[in-house]
Amino acid sequence: MGALHRPLMQILFGSLLERWIDPSHVAFALGSGGSLLSDACGLFSCWLFVYMALRGFYATVPPLLRWYHARRYPKAPTSNVTEPLIENMKEVANAAFPLYATVPILTDLFQRKGWAMTCDDVADCGGWMPTLLGCLGYFAFLEVVIFVDHCMRLGLNPRRP
Fold first, then answer.
1. Stated pTM of the model
2. Residue 105 and residue 69 share a domain
3. Residue 20 CA neighbour count, 13 Å, CB half
4. How does pLDDT run across 30-86, given as a tens digit for each residue?
5. Count of CB atoms within 10 A of residue 111's CB?
6. Same domain for 111 and 128?
């Protein structure tokens, strides 16, 4: 079970890094070295990569999309959002990035420990219907959690009208 698991970073970058660095060192640093320290290094490198990718994406793509849509659709309501509100949205998103970057680490850890209910393909998950129902259930649960979090941040009680 544990020997079959390849950490996400090993899958993404292992063969590339092994061209220049000893494969045993790469395996250790990316989390497939077989020790607790290697696991910790792999989880941290995965978190750091996802965090930096989120920051890079958020620093480039949304400003480009905002610029394009403001030029293309100047009278659209979204083109008239005030700068303080935009800055507030950026601040909230930036505060959430460390948590967003934790999701792949938890997935990797759960797979390594055998706690994950993940499959290699749709057939392993029981077919299309159980796979789709599982995804729908996950997204529904996630949306409820996000809604409750936003209500708590705004000081609202979702049960009170």
1. 0.66
2. yes
3. 3
4. 887 778 888 888 889 889 998 999 899 989 998 898 899 889 988 888 778 888 888
5. 19
6. no
